[in-house]
Amino acid sequence: MFILLETTQNQELVTLIPWTFIAQILNLFLQMFLIKKFLFKPIREVLEKRKAKADAEIGEATKAKEEALAMKEEYEQNMSEARDKANEILANAQKTATVKSEEILKEASENAVSIKAKAERDIEQEKRKAVNEIKDEIAGMAMEIAGKVIEREISEKDHAKLIDEFIENVGVQ
User: Would residue 153 be called left, alpha or beta, if left means φ above 0 and alpha means ψ between -120 and 50 degrees?
Assistant: First the structure.
């Protein structure tokens, strides 16, 4: 009897009661609806907000990277232009220095030539002056010698003639 009673109880546990089954199904659908509305929907919204925020940050980072690359390119271009300009200024300075040095050398050469020509003129003038002084001295000495040799006075004409002959014999003019 005990076995039979147990089997009947077991059968009661296993049997389906239609109203209980419907209530349990409705309860399950209600729980699913409430979980979906109050749990999944807010979680999905939070996840979507996070995703949108992450996408926005990624977009901003991409935009910042593009701006940084553009700034880097502009910087490199400016540096290249500055190098080119510096090279141009250096080349112009070298050309100017070359031209100035050539002008200075030309001017120095012209000055040297003019100084040399002046020195040659001065030397020639001093040479003539020295020759004239020597002529005068020689003439005076020749007069004395001639006066002693002849022991008479010589006229100016004779005196000039003697000087000229003496100079021709000596080879100085």
Answer: beta
149 contact partners, CB below 8 Å, separation of at least 6: none
19 closest CA partner among 11, 10, 27, 9: 27
This prediction has a pTM of 0.40
CA–CA separation, 31 vs 10, rounded Å? Answer: 29
DSSP 94-126: HHHHHHHHHHHHHHHHHHHHHHHHHHHHHHHHH
- Whole-number Å distance between alpha carbons of 25 and 33: 12
The residues spanned by each domain of the chain are 21-170
45-88 confidence digits (pLDDT tens): 889 999 999 999 999 999 999 999 999 999 999 999 999 999 99
Structure tokens at 146: 């001639």
Alpha-carbon distances, residue 94 vs 81, 84, 89, 106, 108 (angstroms)? 20, 15, 9, 18, 20
